Automatic annotation (TrEMBL), chain A:
Belongs to the NrfD family. This is Polysulphide reductase NrfD. It is found in: Cell membrane. The lineage of its organism: Bacteria, Pseudomonadati, Thermodesulfobacteriota, Desulfarculia, Desulfarculales. It comes from Desulfarculus baarsii (strain ATCC 33931 / DSM 2075 / LMG 7858 / VKM B-1802 / 2st14). NCBIfam families: DsrP. The keyword Transmembrane helix applies.
Automatic annotation (TrEMBL), chain B:
Pfam families: Fer4_11. Keywords: 4Fe-4S, Iron, Iron-sulfur, Metal-binding. Residues 152-181 form the 4Fe-4S ferredoxin-type domain. It is found in: Cell envelope. Coiled coil: none annotated. This is 4Fe-4S ferredoxin iron-sulfur binding domain protein. It comes from Desulfarculus baarsii (strain ATCC 33931 / DSM 2075 / LMG 7858 / VKM B-1802 / 2st14). InterPro entries: 4Fe4S_Fe-S-bd, 4Fe4S_Fe_S_CS, DsrO-like, ET_IronSulfur_Cluster-Binding, TAT_signal, TAT_signal_bac_arc. PROSITE patterns: 4FE4S_FER_1, 4FE4S_FER_2, TAT.
Length: 385, 279
């Protein structure tokens, strides 16, 4: 089936070349990092995880959100999603690949990566995160590829994929829960030490992922003959609406607990993020942007008439994306590490090289999604859907 | 005179003593003998009972500038701890720290109160890895590169560490440092920001230097304990820092803890730090 990705328009090839150029730049920057060490990043003794791990956290959410298509279709036989589940599964493959790459570029000794397998350590959440992410990657590869191939041949999928599909549903939840446990189980990090971390991660993922899917569906409709369907997009938009509301609601719950209890080691991080702490306020404009985008998006999505207007819906989806991206892709690390355990403040901003490497990883992930989508769309077009 | 068992043992004992005497007098042995006199308690006491664990006490009332500097310097030299400065000559945010000075309210977050004697509040504290009995750093490490030894020391295997820095996120005391760059280059190539000249830092050949990409921290001087020596910082601050077996009521550290009230950093986290501060 992969041969379908080899026949494409000029625009398609141009896009791939652009991605390859970015991947090349990212790789070049990574070579510099490999030689110099992680000193080329903005990370420090106090903020020991930065942009890379933040992207991992965000993208795990995007990957997990495939379940928002798979679950209604396979468990509730919601036929409308049948046409586009493959888009969710293929998006998940790209997202998980990026997650794994972001872990690797973050390692100080990537050549020793296999130590995680050579010395398996069940008490480490990172060990489990690696396990669940890899299994999820393979589940989606097998399920996506197999169902698509059957669709092409016009035969029902073989019986053995069904159990895998059912397994992929809780598995999607597990990848984001385990990723939340990376943070939520650490004593002395007040911002992360909260039982609501996993649910917060899940709802923000189920807002961001479907928002991305809506935008992708609109794009797909523009550049191919395949139409995911207005109804599918509308159903997704309802999911986005509920989840972005929950996202902000959960943040409100967090704020209540933290500020009503008045415990300094829990308050200081949120104060730092939203108001600045002892004059350090790098994150303040970002966090308020996120909050305002979230609130505006809710306003736009909650009114059915506006939500049904696809132009407004697209804008709302972008706002949802910005809101959840800043929250997880930036605030999660900065808020967790600042102030440090000695209540000192070391601020963090990624460096140019760090961003270039990250852009390279994103480009590679997008390349994978592009190629997979190309295959899927060509098959859908062949079948005249 | 018949040689019974007792007499034989006595004679053997004298012989052994003579042998030990020779051991001390033979060329080059003097340094060791000097060390025995220099460090208290006698290094022969430096063994931990089975099931016991090492611990440290620091007397905050006696911890002055001189003691702090001597202790920190002893550790830095002994272990080739590299130091980086930023363009302004201040400690770089990617610096390596094994033992360092912190303000009282930083070391004891949420323990300070506004009415404590200013001698306590305004005196700096020495902080280092606490060799916790329930160490979160060990719990999270995905490769067991950080592990707990039977004698309580939380140890690092720098040949196994993958540099994921999960342990740094997990340590609630900021005790861990990551080699963002090659520390070996730092000894010879780091430019002094003031003079622009390469800054040569002496390398202690007895202790291994590290590579970039791994995490490191205080090891309670495991290498010195193995040969019967006190930790370098303790040796450099006699009467201020104490070290010994926590399970032995007669150990110097327990003797201090019996007499004086002591506090630990963040006891509410359940990590059971084994570094105690006498106040
Ligand atoms: S102080 Fe930190 S590094 Fe040391 S044992 Fe405790 S948790 Fe681990
Ligand atoms: S950085 Fe090294 S010691 Fe720390 S958790 Fe990772 S592998 Fe373990
Ligand atoms: S015990 Fe040894 S390694 Fe630890 S701070 Fe003291 S001198 Fe350094």
């Amino acid at each position: 089936m992969l041969d379908l990705a080899l026949k494409g328009s000029k625009r398609y090839w141009g896009w791939l070349v652009l991605l390859l150029v970015i991947i090349g730049a990212g790789f070049g920057a990574y070579v510099v990092q490999a030689i110099e060490g992680l000193t080329i990043t903005g990370m420090s003794r106090d903020v020991s995880w930065g942009f890379y791990i933040a992207q991992l956290t965000f993208l795990v959410g995007v990957a997990a959100s495939a379940v928002m298509l798979v679950l209604p279709y396979y468990l509730h036989h919601y036929k409308t999603f049948g046409r586009i589940t493959i888009l969710g599964e293929f998006l998940a493959i790209g997202a998980v690949t990026m997650c794994l790459l972001f872990v690797i570029v973050d390692l100080g000794k990537p050549e020793r990566l296999m130590n995680v397998i050579l010395h398996p350590t069940p008490n480490s959440v990172l060990f489990w995160d690696m396990v669940v992410l890899n299994v999820y990657l393979f589940l989606n590869l097998i399920i996506g590829w197999c169902t698509l191939e059957c669709e092409r041949k016009d035969v029902p999928p073989p019986a053995w994929v069904k159990p895998l599909i059912y397994l992929s549903i809780p598995w999607a939840v597990s990848i984001h829960t385990v990723t939340a446990f990376l943070y939520a189980g650490l004593p002395g990090r007040g911002f992360w030490l909260t039982a609501i971390m996993a649910p917060r991660f899940l709802v923000s993922a189920f807002a961001a992922g479907p928002a991305v899917l809506i935008l992708l569906s609109m794009l797909v409709r523009k550049i191919s003959k395949f139409d995911p369907g207005k109804e599918a997009i509308q159903t997704l938009s309802k999911i986005v609406t509920y989840c972005i509301i929950l996202h902000l609601f959960f943040f409100g719950l967090e704020c209540f607990t933290v500020f009503y209890s008045n415990m300094p080691s829990h308050m200081s991080h949120i104060i730092y993020l939203y108001f600045g702490y002892h004059g350090f306020n790098t994150m303040v404009p970002f966090m308020w942007t996120a909050l305002l985008c979230g609130l505006t998006a809710i306003g736009m999505l909650i009114v059915p008439k506006w939500r049904q207007n696809e132009k407004l819906l697209a804008i709302a989806c972008v706002l949802v994306f910005i809101c959840t991206y800043i929250d997880k892709g930036m605030g999660m690390m900065a808020g967790g590490f600042v102030p440090n355990p000695l209540h000192e403040i070391t601020e963090y901003l990624p460096t140019g090289l760090e961003l270039t490497i990250s852009a390279g990883v994103y480009a590679l992930g997008i390349l994978i999604v592009t190629v997979l989508y190309k295959v899927a769309l060509t098959i859908k077009e062949e079948r005249g859907e | 005179m018949s040689w019974d068992r007792r007499k034989f043992l006595k004679a053997a004992g004298v012989g052994a003593l003579a042998g030990m005497g020779w051991q001390l007098l033979r060329p080059g042995a003097l340094d060791a003998a000097e060390l025995i006199g220099k460090y208290s308690p006698n290094p022969s006491q430096l063994a931990v009972k089975p099931g016991g664990n090492w611990g440290m006490a620091i007397d905050l009332t006696k911890l002055d500038d001189a003691a702090r500097q001597a202790a920190a310097e002893a550790c830095n030299i002994e272990h080739n701890v590299p130091h980086y400065v930023d363009a302004e000559g201040k400690a770089s945010k990617q610096d390596i720290k094994w033992i360092w000075e912190a303000e009282f309210d930083q070391a004891f977050v949420e323990t300070e109160n506004p009415y404590a004697p200013s001698a306590v509040l305004h005196n700096k504290v020495l902080v280092l890895c606490n060799h916790c009995q329930n160490p979160p750093c060990v719990r999270v490490c995905p490769t067991q590169a950080t592990f707990k030894r039977e004698d309580g020391i939380v140890m690092m295997d720098m040949h196994r560490c993958i540099g994921c820095r999960f342990c740094m996120a997990a340590c609630p005391y900021g005790s861990r440092s990551f080699n963002f760059k090659d520390p070996r280059a730092a000894y010879f190539n780091e430019k002094d920001p003031k003079t622009g000249q390469p800054r040569l830092q002496e390398v202690t050949s007895e202790y291994p230097t590290r590579t970039k990409g791994v995490v490191e921290k205080c090891t309670f001087c495991a290498e010195r304990l193995a040969v019967g020596l006190q930790p370098a910082c303790v040796a450099a601050a006699p009467g201020v820092m104490f070290f010994g077996d926590m399970s032995d009521a007669g150990s110097p550290v327990r003797a201090q803890l019996n007499k004086r009230f002591s506090i630990r950093r963040k006891p509410n986290l359940g990590t059971e730090p084994q570094v105690f501060y006498l106040i």
